[in-house]
Amino acid sequence: MLTSSILQRLQQLWQEGEHFDASHSERREKRLNITPDTGKFLYQLSRSRRARTVLEIGTSNGFSTVWLGLAAKAHKGRVLTVDSSAHKTALARATLDAFGLHDVVSLRTGDAFSLLADANDESVDLLFLDADRARYQGYWPEITRILAPGGLVVMDNALSHAGECADFIAAVLATHGYLAETYPIGKGQFVILKDL
Q: Smallest Cα–Cα separation from 164: which of 124, 130, 121?
């Protein structure tokens, strides 16, 4: 359950991330956190789906991971998250420890494609994409394999970076058995349902 205390801590963490990003010019250093309304949306989707296995591509400092982890903890689920930066993985570990989620979330540093390739067929209930958008289209065949029937994929930045997401969105919309829509939440959430 998201108590007022947890929501206040999440709001403070987001504000700290926004302040940090404003004072750093290099993209790879920035936190690039999702918006709080996007976090609530992810939490709602995960809770209502009772997602037991959640995969996140793009951990950063763990802000989005906390929302996913809190939802997973409520119904004894697990989150596996991967980021290419060891520095950001370390930041995320501290964030998750502060929220008591070290036993719910597994952190990895490495290549997301390898993580996808290693996942079992139809084993993921919810997947959150918030990383290198140029790679998403290449991930799609693996995503279709590992996503459970009735599973969801949520991609951030569908509106803020529409051009960078266009090829991935086109690939999804051309795939039979998937229902997808973009919602004007945060920076735009492209939500995909495996409707098989």
A: 130
